[in-house]
Amino acid sequence: MNVRPEVLSSFWLEDVDLPPIGANDVLVKMLAAPINPSDINMIQDYEDPLSNTVFAGTYAILPDLPAVAGNEGVAQVVEVGSQVKSFKIGDWVIPRDAGLGTWRTEAVLAESDVISVPNDIPLLSAATLGVNPCTAFRMLSDFGDLKPGDSVIQNAANSGVGQAVIQISAARGIQTINIVRDRPQFTQLSDSLKAIGATYVIREEALRQPEIKELLKNCPKPKLALNGVGGKSATEILRHLQVGGSMVTYGGMAKQPVTVPVSALIFKDLKVRGFWVTQWKRDHSHDERIFRSMLDELCSLIQQGKLTAPTCAEVGLQDYNKALDSAMQPFISTKQVLIM
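The line above is the sequence of Enoyl-[acyl-carrier-protein] reductase, mitochondrial; the predicted structure tokens follow.
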């Protein structure tokens, strides 16, 4: 996949009239909305190297264009319809599902499109709550019986999901082995990840060196591997799982397939799974209690200071082109957040 300059030119600001507020609608003022890889993937071209064919969009959700971009963010309720029961003026809300369109200043939304979050948590934590922390929470909860003292290995440890995995794991007493690509500021990055609870931070190259074997002498072999990269990185973290362990893939930043050695399946009985938080939300949309319980637990961690937002750069909506350009640069650990 190539990041093309046309990606930036695909976005523009436009003034539009809001529809009237229906009985079951809420009028919200958007407060902040991050730029996530999935937002770019929705309109980013994919070039198939075998057929030289260019496909539009690389994400499972492709909105009808023109559309309002943005899948995540936090808004404040400023008006409610006559039959709205769940919200009152002043409440903070986040989208229940992807595709809502959060890169805007105001919106009229159905009551069922959003769910409330406490308005006493930091703005950036609320704005970045619905995707990465939920992804981390579910993967740590649903793919193995993890107990205090167990360990998890993950690549893309400096990503938004990776940072949430570190903090939620630390709150649960679970050790994390965190893999990042080598870079000039590796020591600074390692220190920042350890400051939020990372047990170990190692370069990707170390997965093929004696260093990892020495590390595992002081740490139980991981029960769970979390893969946000794909390619060789996924194969390497898979190799270090204990017998019966699971690798869960939630992203593919390397744009390379996941290769699994036959021996890993036969002799170690490893499980290879995938996870997409949007599908999880849709699968559980009939029972709000499950989603509500997860958000409550995550917000409690935020209120206790055990879960913080990833490092963010706040950018005014008028400067969205600058934010998009920054979001697509390599080796970036800072999440761009549009402030309305």
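Note on the example: The two ends are 31 Å apart (CA to CA). The CA atoms of residues 71 and 99 lie 5 Å apart.
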